[in-house]
Design brief:
- The complex is a heterodimer of chains A (403) and B (296).
- Chain A is 48% helix and 16% strand.
- Chain A is built from 12 helices and 12 strands.
- In chain A, helix 6 crosses helix 8.
- The N terminus and C terminus of chain A are likely disordered.
- Among the domains of chain B are: 63 residues, no CATH class; 105 residues, Band 7 domain (Tetrahydropterin Synthase, Chain A), CATH 3.30.479; 38 residues.
- In chain B, 55% of the residues lie in helices and 22% in strands.
- Chain B is rod-shaped, with a radius of gyration of 61 Å.
- The termini of chain B are far apart.
- Chains A and B meet through strand 9, helix 6, helix 9, helix 10 and strand 12 of A and strand 6, helix 4, strand 9, helix 6 and helix 7 of B.
- Strand 12 of chain A pairs parallel with strand 10 of chain B.
Chain lengths: 403, 296
Amino acid sequence: MPWNGQGGGGGGGPWGNGPGPWARGPNGGNAPQSPNLDEILRRGQEWLRRFLPGGGAGPGGIVGIIVGVLVAIWAVTGLYRVLPDEQGIVLRFGAYEKTTQPGLNYHLPYPIETVFTPKVTRVNRTEIGLRTGGEGPAVARGPGTRDVPEEALMLTGDENIVDINFTVFWVIKDPKAYLFNIAAPEATVKAAAESAMRETVGRTPIASALAEGRRAIEVDTQKLLQYVLDSYGSGVEVTQVQLQKVDPPGPVIDAFRDVQRARTDQERARNEAEGYRNDILPRARGEAERITQEAEAYKQEIVARAQGDAQRFLSVLQTYKAAKDVTTERLYLETMEQILRSANKVLIDPAAQGAGQGVVPYLPLPDLTRRTTPPPAPANQANQSPSVPSLSPAGASTGGTTP
Amino acid sequence: MTRNLMIGIGVGIVALLIVLANSLYVVDQTKQALVLYFGEPIRVVRTPGLKLKVPFIQNVVLYDNRVQGFDAPSEEVIAADQKRLVVDTYAQYKIVDPLQFYRSVGSDTIVRARLGATMSGSLRRSLGNIILATLLSDQRAKIMTEIRNDVKAQAVAFGIDVIDVRIKRADLPPENSQAIYARMQSEREREAKEFRAQGAELAQGIRARAERDRTVLLAEAQRNAQILRGQGDGESVKIYADAFGQDKDFFAFYRSMQAYQTGLPGSGTTMVLSPNSEFFRYFRSMTGAPPKTGTP
C-alpha cells in the first residue's frame, strides 16, 4: 500500500508495520553486481589470512576459514541501499550518527549500527471525514469511499453544522526530527489536522464555508496545522490541505438545495417578465409608429387635396373671369345634365292642373325606388343626338362635356 | 590437562560475556534511561548510545523521549450558557524528568489515566466560564492555550511536559443537533421564500413598467397624430380659404355645382321637377323668355 496514508506511511519508520530495520541489512546484501561487494570480500579474506598463518591446512585452518566466512557475511549485512526518494538515517548504538543520500551505502553491521530509510519525497495523505478504499485521484469519490460522520460534521461560527471531508498532503521535511521527535507521526498529523480544521471552520459562518470561503479555510487550516506540527518538532511539512466536500448535513441538504432552486426561480420569474416586456414594447413602438404615420399621411393627403382643389378652382376661376356669363351658364347646364341623365325624373306642370288645384300628385315612393334600374335603351337612343338635349321622359343625356 | 584448560577458558569467556552483556546497554535515539540501584533511581541518561553500568546490581529502565500523543475520551461539558457540548481533546506530551516520572506514575498506562483526569478537570473549568459562541470564535486558540497551561502546570508532577492540549471536536450532543437542523431548515425555507417572493416582485414590477411604457407610448403617438391631423386640417382650410376667397360668388356657384354632382349620384335619385324651372325655360319658348302667365 504505497499510496495509502493511513497505514505504514513512514515506510522506513522504525515502528511501522513495514519491513523492520533489522531485516534491512541482509536485504541490502542482495544488491547484485556491486564492485564494492567483491572488494569487501577480498579485503576480509586478506585480513583473515594475516590472522591465520599456515595458509589454511589442518583443523585450525578450517575453523579459521569458517569463522572468516561468517565474519565476512556479517560484515556484508552492513550494506544497504537508499532509494532515490529516501534518505538514510544511521544510528550507532541507538545514537544518531549520520544521514546518507540515495545510492548504495554501508554501515557497520548490526548490532553496532542500524539504518532507517524514510521516504522523504513521497507525498503522504491523511484523509479526514472519509475513508477511501484505495488508490485513485484525490477528488474522486468512488464507491470505495465512505463517510465518517463523527469526523465530518462540525460546528460553524454561526452555530450551524456543516459536513466537511478533507485531505491533508504532507511530506517528511526533516527525517531526523520525524523519526526521533514524535512517537506516532501519522496519528499526530491526523489529530492536529482535525483540530485545526475545526478551529478554522469554528470561526467561519456556514454561508461562507459553503461558497467563497473554501479557499480561505484551506489556507488557514494549512497555516495553523503547520504551526501546530512545528511546535511538536515533528519534521513534517504540510504541502496542501484540500477540502473534498463541504456540504450542509444530510437532514437539511434538501432545504439548502431548495434555496438554490428558489434563486433560479427568481431568475426565471425575472426573465419571463423581461421577456414579456421585450415582447410588448417593440409592438407598442410599432403601433405608435403606425398611428403617427397614418396621421402624417392624413395630413399630407388633406393638404394635397386642398391644394389640388384650390388649384382647380383657381384655374376655373381664371377662365371664368374671361367670360363670366357663358361659363356660368355652361357649368350650370352641364351639371344639371349630368344629374338629370341618370336620375328618375317626374315632370309635373303646375299649369296642367287647371286653376292651381285639382290633381294631387301621387308618388308611390317605394315603387320609385324599385324602378331605379330602367332599361338603358332610351338613353342609347338619346346618345345618337348628342348636341341636342333629349326630351324623352325616360331619361335625358348629352354627350357633351361633364365636369 | 589442555582439555581442562580449554574448558576453563571457555567458561571464563562465557562468564565474561555474561558480565559484559549485563554491564552494557544501548540507549536509543528515541529513548532516555533511568539507572536504578536495587530499585532506587540513581541517575538519568539522556544521551543516546552504548552505555556502561555496574552489572547485576544496577538495572536500567528506558523511557521514550519523543513527543507522544494522547487522545482523551469524549466528554460532555456544559458551557456557561448551559449549552451542552461533546468535546474531544488530545494532548502531546513528552517525558522530561524520568526520575519524577518513575516515582510518581511509573508507566505509560498510568500517566495517561492521570493526564486524562487532569485534562478533563481543566476542560470543565475553562469551558464552564465561557459561552458556546466564544468557543466558535477567534477566542478558541486562547481557550486552548489556557487549558494547556493549566494541564502543563499540573503535569509537572508526573515528570512530563505537556506541549499542547487541543480541542479536536466540540460538537453538540445528537439531540441538540436535531434542534440545530430544524433551525437551519427553517432558515433556509425562509430564505427560499424570500427569493421566490423577490422574484415575483421583480417580475410584477417589470411587467407593470412595460405596460405603462406601452400605454404612454401609444397615447403619445395618438397625441402626435391628432396634432398632425389638426395641422393638416388647418393648412387645408387655409389653402381653400385663400383660393376660394378670391371670388366668393363664383365659389358658391362652382362648389354648389360640384356638390350637386357628388351629392346626387347617378341612379336612385328621383326628382320631381316643374317645367317652369330655369333649366326648362326653353320648353316654353325658343327664346327662353320667362312665361307671361303661370307660376314661376
